[in-house]
Design brief:
Structural class: mainly alpha
Largest sheet: none
Number of strands: 0
Order of helices and strands: HHHHHHHHHH
Radius of gyration: 62 Å
Strand content: under 5%
Shape: rod-shaped
């Protein structure tokens, strides 16, 4: 007997005749080896199942690839939609930050102006003596500022809320798209690993990664053929054992008895055992026994080879079932991705509408903020004008003080001249009276004895006196008005 991998039987000359007991032991071992038919049957089952798996996997893989390609195309479209909404989100955030920055700058300018009003104490001489000390801010209503700031803050909060809603919508949408993408691609890596694993003991093709089943099936068929060949050699060895025993004295009954009760499906040896032995020469018998002895030594080797083949096929079949299960799971995943994609596309209108809602709300709130900021700027200009006007008031008071001083100086000079004229007139009147008064009747001119004219000054209008403000205060106000400070 030879194994499937041997080229010829090894023939050696037996040094001694082969006894019946030895032949019986060979026959028992050969009969026992025929139970390996179960491995051959199992190999046939594995090959048949693998063919079924191959056919099913081709259909499943085609369906999966078709679905995945469609899903991938739709995901690219959804990514474009998300990118559009993300651009709106980014631009909105940029505009929002710019508006807030402009508002903060205007608010800071107004705050500085208000602080200047608060720290500018009104000169006490401008107010009634009973009044407490006041600053410029005490004379204006800050309520308008607070209302404007509150209105701007409300609009800013509303815009921020709309932007946050858009951000959350974008995050949720991107998360949904990413989850579908992960499901769609999830099983590829494991399938590729199985595809690259190839066949254990077989020749795996070096083509692009794909289904490993064709290579596995080819390897299984090769192994199953080897197993069938090996089983055939074991059957021949069994027949040879039966023939050898029948051609041995006293071996007819033993051959008939041992040829019975073979493994199910193994119908060999009985016909040879029951038939009368054909006459052979001593040389033919010697050659037969020599072949038998050599083949007997190889029975365990052939059985080991069959076991190796079936073990390898079981391993390959496990890889096949694992691959098919992964393929079915991949198909289920792609179906799930498709269902989630349908659900997401049903919400697509709302997602796109959310960006439009944000744009409308942002435009509305932005217009309100700009309007309030314009009012805030106007209010800031008013308060700045108010502060400048107070400085100009101090300058005006200084000017009026100067004019009053000039008027009083002119008036004092005039009064001195009038007093001089009055004194001169009085002296001349007395001299006239001395020279001619005794000669003139008293009633000739009643005004002859009247005193000379005397003039007095009186303020006709403007009863309020110009406030007494120090020159240093007025000088500082002049500097501020002229921009020196």
């Amino acid at each position: 007997m030879v194994s499937s991998n041997s080229s010829a039987s090894i023939r050696e000359t037996s040094p001694a005749p082969t006894s019946l007991d030895t032949l019986v032991s060979h026959l028992v071992a050969s009969k026992r080896s025929l139970s390996s038919i179960e491995h051959v049957w199992r190999a046939n089952e594995i090959v048949t199942s693998t063919r079924v798996y191959l056919e099913a996997s081709v259909v499943t893989s085609a369906r999966t690839s078709f679905l995945r390609a469609g899903i991938t195309t739709q995901l690219h479209t959804l990514e474009s939609v998300h990118a559009h909404n993300k651009a709106i989100e980014t631009e909105g955030a940029k505009e929002y930050a710019g508006v807030l920055r402009t508002f903060d700058e205007a608010d800071q300018r107004l705050r500085r102006t208000l602080e200047s009003l608060r720290t500018t104490i009104v000169e006490h001489s401008l107010r009634p003596e009973s009044d407490q000390r006041k600053n410029l801010l005490d004379f204006v209503d800050e309520g308008g500022v607070d209302k404007l700031l509150a209105a701007v803050e409300n609009s800013a909060n509303a815009a921020k809320e709309a932007h946050n809603e858009l951000v959350q919508t974008n995050i949720g949408f991107h998360s949904d798209v990413g989850r579908i993408q992960n499901i769609n691609d999830g099983s590829r890596s494991s399938l590729h690993k199985l595809s690259k694993k190839g066949t254990a003991g077989g020749s795996h093709s070096n083509t692009a990664p794909g289904s490993p089943i064709p290579d596995i099936l080819q390897s299984m068929e090769d192994r199953a053929k080897d197993m069938a060949d090996n089983l055939e050699s074991l059957v021949k060895h069994f027949d040879l054992c039966v023939t050898a025993i029948k051609h041995t004295e006293g071996g007819g009954d033993a051959a008939q008895r041992l040829a019975d009760d073979l493994p199910e499906g193994m119908d060999v040896g009985q016909e040879i055992a029951s038939a009368a032995p054909e006459p052979i020469t001593d040389q033919e018998r010697e050659d037969m026994l020599e072949v038998l002895a050599n083949d007997a030594d190889q029975v365990e080797e052939v059985l080991a080879e069959i076991r190796d083949h079936i073990n390898a096929m079981e391993t390959l079949f496990d890889d096949t079932t694992t691959y098919v299960a992964e393929l079915d799971q991949e198909h289920s995943n792609v179906l799930e991705a498709f269902r989630q994609l349908e659900s997401l596309e049903g919400r697509l209108h709302g997602f796109v509408a959310q960006s439009q809602v944000f744009v409308m709300r942002w435009d509305d709130e932005k217009a309100k903020i700009h309007e309030r900021m314009s009012e805030l700027e106007s209010l800031g200009d008013f308060y700045s004008g108010y502060l400048s006007a107070y400085d100009n008031l101090l300058v005006e008071i200084g000017r009026r003080q100067f004019m009053e001083q000039q008027m009083e100086k002119v008036l004092q000079d005039a009064m001195r001249k009038l007093d001089t004229l009055h004194e001169e007139d009085s002296m001349k009147r007395e001299a006239f009276k001395t020279d001619y008064g005794d000669f003139l009747p008293v009633d000739i001119w009643p005004g002859l004895v009247n005193p000379p004219l005397r003039f007095e000054t009186a303020q006709v209008n403007g009863t309020e006196k110009v406030p007494d403000i120090s020159k240093s205060v007025i000088q500082r106000a002049i500097h501020r008005v002229e921009g020196k400070v």
